[in-house]
Amino acid sequence: MALPLGTLNYNGRGFGMLVVGGANSERKLIEVISAWDKALNPVKPPAALLDRSKAA
């Protein structure tokens, strides 16, 4: 599962973390990612993505 963490200041590209687990570990992965997500501030979409949505 991929977890977005933010964007780089120098080029605006997004970065994240990939979390992997063993067979049938989906529930635990979701619990871990949910806790991590709640502990961090909300991640804003990259500026390039926001600019693209305004043009549409």
From TrEMBL:
Q: What is this protein identified as?
A: Uncharacterized protein
Tell me which domain of life the UniProt entry assigns to the organism this sequence originates from: Eukaryota
Which species is this record about? Apodospora peruviana
